[in-house]
Specification:
Blueprint lengths: L9 E7 L4 E6 L5 E2 L7 H4 L10 H14 L1
Parallel strand pairs: 1-3
Antiparallel strand pairs: 1-2
Amino acid sequence: MKPTIHPTVHAITARCACGNAFPTTSTLDDVRVTLCSACHPFFTGAQKFVDTAGRIEKFEKRYKKSNKN
């Protein structure tokens, strides 16, 4: 392998939005994620209700409007 063309790999601590931190390796200096195995519903078995930017309300408005016709 040519020594000058490959990125440097660092041992870092990745941080999740839930507060969990875990060691990993990356070419980046800082890694922040929104979901990890400690908070993702697939791994925890718990359902999370996430309403981003009122998507449910927008859908309900459209559905109610079309239902009246």
